[in-house]
Specification:
The chain has 455 residues and is α/β, with parallel strands linked by helices. The protein is 30% helix and 21% strand. It folds into two domains: 263 residues, 4-Layer Sandwich (Metallo-beta-lactamase, Chain A), CATH 3.60.15; 177 residues, Rossmann fold, CATH 3.40.50. The strands form four sheets. Strands 6-5-4-3-2-1-22 form a seven-stranded mixed sheet. Strands 7-8-9-10-11-20-21 form a seven-stranded mixed sheet, with helices on one face. A six-stranded parallel sheet has the order 14-13-15-12-16-19, with helices on both faces. Helix 3 packs antiparallel against helix 7 and helix 12 packs across helix 13. The protein binds zinc ion.
């Protein structure tokens, strides 16, 4: 048997997004994740082609359903991939709604530019016909004597670390690692006795703001807005963040920490994802499962309104204040949020609350920074008179200290740590810290680098 295996870093090297690692075990080519690099990656052109032949890949294993880990799977199929795709059942179910939504946006935008979209509806359905699901902790064999298990990463519902084992050698691909302890999900599983680790480093060089006060801060923003009889608008990501927000508001309302008022959930994709969360309650942490067993519906509370269609969405504006509107997209670069922003930003009674990261160049970032005093939304200038608030304690990723602690559990056996899925300075800082603290060999790979491992 051949003893040396290789990993090629086709994506997620020197960048947070675009996770795509090829694990060649000699007789099998195993791809780990196949994510989009950025939202603008939408035309089927040379610069968006894979740097390998997808037809030669035997297996694709998926860590979780965020676009930067699954967004290019249909393109992989379009370009000839016919192997098996593996993920946890929750990851597959969420991927179905996420990729359907991505396809809709992709097709619209490609049409506007006049280019061939990255993939089509047919490619998406073909991908799901190749897709098999495996529960956490169940060992499956992908060939070449490689045994694989999914371990709970605690990042989003269904998120998994991928453990590959052959003979007495073990490697783990972390995907994204949850900011444990998290509100709904269990903690990231502890790992030990592994030889190689390929890990994320989104927050490799930074620690999170104290999160103990985040619920109190949220309550305060809600109460202030209530007193002003305004509209509180909360832009939110559809997956995980929206469900956490509902969970928090449910707690605040049911314990009487904030007054009851209408809460409009105007985010179709987030609604579909929430339905999947309900289906997988068995994956929630013990606390939340107990709350549910005691009769609480953690995503429902008095005066909660799930908006069904565009005409209902349009009528929210005319409804009585004070009220709360939760809408997507999380960075205001599309979706129903923009219309609400247009309606409410000009009035100082109202509030916009950001609970997620706003990337540079997005409307969300422009509103959050409030630099110009006005923003341009879909053909109209709107003055920024509303209160603008941010709570940064709801990150879904481990911060620097916790990433270091995570590696520490397996420091005794690790031969090498590949620090990926972060900006270069973030990955380098984390790699330096791991080396300094545990004396481990670390590598910060660049795109298309190949590393040999003893596996
Ligand atoms: Zn993620």
């Amino acid at each position: 048997m051949q003893k040396k295996s290789t990993i090629t870093f086709y994506g997620g090297a020197g960048s947070v997004t675009g996770a795509n690692f090829l694990f060649n075990t000699g007789n099998k080519k195993i791809l780990i994740d196949c994510g989009l690099t950025h939202a603008g990656q939408l035309c089927y052109v040379l610069e968006n082609k894979f740097h390998y032949n997808p037809a030669e890949i035997d297996v694709l294993i998926v860590t979780h359903a965020h676009a930067d880990h699954i967004g290019r799977i249909p393109q992989l199929v379009k370009d000839g991939f016919r192997g098996t795709i593996y993920s946890t059942p929750a990851t597959k179910d969420i991927s179905i709604v996420m990729l359907a939504d991505a396809l809709r946006i992709l097709t619209d935008e490609a049409d506007e530019i006049g280019c061939e979209p990255l993939y089509s509806r047919g490619d998406v359905s073909k991908a799901f016909s190749l897709w098999q699901t495996i529960d956490y902790h169940k060992t499956f064999i992908v060939g070449d004597s490689v045994h694989v298990r999914f371990l709970d990463a605690g990042h989003i519902l269904g998120s998994a670390m991928i453990e590959c084992e052959r003979d007495d050698k073990k490697i783990i691909f972390t995907g994204d690692l949850g900011n444990s302890p998290e509100l709904i999900l269990p903690d990231t599983e502890k790992i030990s006795n592994i030889d190689y680790l390929l890990m994320e480093s989104v927050y490799g060089d930074r620690n999170h703001e104290d999160r103990r006060n985040r619920r109190e801060k949220l309550a305060q923003v809600i109460r202030e807005n209530y007193k002003r009889k305004g509209t509180l608008l909360i832009p939110t990501f559809a997956l995980q963040r929206a469900q956490i927000l509902l969970y928090e508001i449910n707690k605040l309302v049911e314990h009487g920490y904030v007054p009851e008022m209408p809460v409009y959930f105007d985010a179709p994709l987030a609604q579909r994802v929430t339905t999947i969360f309900r289906r997988y309650q068995k994956l929630f942490n013990e606390n939340v499962r107990e709350e549910i067993a005691n009769g609480d519906d953690i995503f429902d509370f008095p005066q909660f309104v799930s908006i069904k269609n565009v005409s209902e969405s349009l009528s929210i504006e005319k409804s009585k204040n004070p009220k709360i509107i939760i809408a997507s997209s999380g960075m205001s670069n599309g979706g129903r949020i923009r219309l609400h922003e247009k309606n409410i930003l000009g009035n100082k009674r109202n509030t916009v609350l950001f609970i997620g990261y706003q990337a540079f160049g997005t409307l969300g970032r422009e509103i959050q920074e409030k630099k110009k005093g006005k923003v341009y939304i879909d053909g109209k200038w709107v003055r920024l008179r509303a209160h603008i608030k941010s709570i940064r304690g709801y990150s879904g990723h481990k911060d620097s200290d916790n990433l270091i602690k995570f590696v520490g559990d397996s420091a005794k056996t690790l031969q090498k740590v590949f620090v990926t899925m972060g900006e270069v300075k973030s990955s380098q800082f984390l790699a330096y810290k791991i080396k300094e603290l545990y004396g481990l060999d670390t590598v910060v790979p660049r795109q298309d680098d190949v590393e040999e491992i003893d596996f």
